[in-house]
Amino acid sequence: MKPRIIVTGANGRLGAALVREWRAAGLNVTGFGRNELDLASGAAITERLNSEDFAALVNCAAQTNVDRCETEIDEAFTLNAEAPTIIADACRRKGARMIHISTDYVFDGAKDGAYTEDDPAIPISIYGASKRAGESGVLAATEGKALVARVSWVFGPDRPSFVDQIVKNAMEKDEVAAIADKVAVPTYTLDAAAMLKPFLFENHASGLLHLCNAGSCTWQEYGQWALDCAAEAGAALKARSVAPLKMADLKAFIARRPPNTAMSTARLTTLTGIHPRPWRDAVREYIAGRIQASKTSAQ
After folding, report:
1. pLDDT, one tens digit for every residue, the chain (299 residues)
2. DSSP letter assigned to residue 149
3. Which among 151, 171, 235, 254 is placed 20 to 30 Å from 209, CA to CA?
């Protein structure tokens, strides 16, 4: 019997991709969504995981609504800090491998250049603070043996993200815009699944790991490339260019956003030999596939 892997947050963009891609690779994967694991109850988490047999657990579950976290602070820390720590403790007691998914929002964004795992985490939002507390809790509960993988600007086929929305808007509207003064790195879920796979059982690296595609961009550059790829794939676009916006002008934002959270993947390459492909290549593949699928379904 192959060792069993549990993926929590299996209904989310990354969790769903991990379950599907790893099953396709022949791994024994069980996905837990909100109905299977109630992160709001520490007792429920402990009871459920104590009753399960598994060799590895990847925790993708989180409250990722950055602005909601600013107003629902207790909820943010319950879901993003306390729950992962309880999960990690259950993994330690079972002797199971734990990989915890975190975020680039643990940084303040003041650095000029890409962040490494050695850079200090200085969150400037409740979301970032709760995720940072989760990182610390997981590592403490597993006596430093867990792997905490930080991702950013996640996109993929299982749930719509920024790239899906901007292409949709450009097909329906004459003008589209995106933030031009925030920098990060897109992370394609299918690439993330491949990059994380060695860390399940083969590579026992622990601590912090930056997991994203190569390069960096602003939201505007990200959106413009998505439109360029959509046009290349034959999408009927009304808008062909993405106008710039400033973060300060978006009054709907409640939480502060760090202006630069580009992350270096040098440690990933050192540990695995994997060189993540450029984000542009990943976006092109994704957008081309989506456009082709929509054409096929329309026939």
Report:
1. 799 999 999 999 999 999 999 999 999 999 999 999 989 999 999 999 999 999 999 999 999 999 999 999 999 999 999 999 999 999 999 999 999 999 999 999 999 999 999 999 999 999 999 999 999 999 999 999 999 999 999 999 999 999 999 999 999 999 999 999 999 999 999 999 999 999 999 999 999 999 999 999 999 999 999 999 999 999 999 999 999 999 888 888 899 999 999 999 999 999 999 999 999 999 999 999 999 887 776 66
2. E
3. 254
Is the full-model pTM beyond 0.90? yes
Q: Tell me the C-alpha distance between 169 and 230, whole Å.
A: 12
3-state DSSP assignment of residue 257: coil
Question: What letters, b where the CB count within 10 A reaches 16 and e where it falls short, cover 97-136?
Answer: bbbbbbbbbbbbbebeebbebebebebbbbbbbbbbbbbe
User: All domains of the chain, ordered by start, with CATH?
Assistant: 4-159+187-214+262-277 (3.40.50.720)
Q: For residues 54 and 35, what is the distance between their CA atoms, to the nearest angstrom?
A: 19
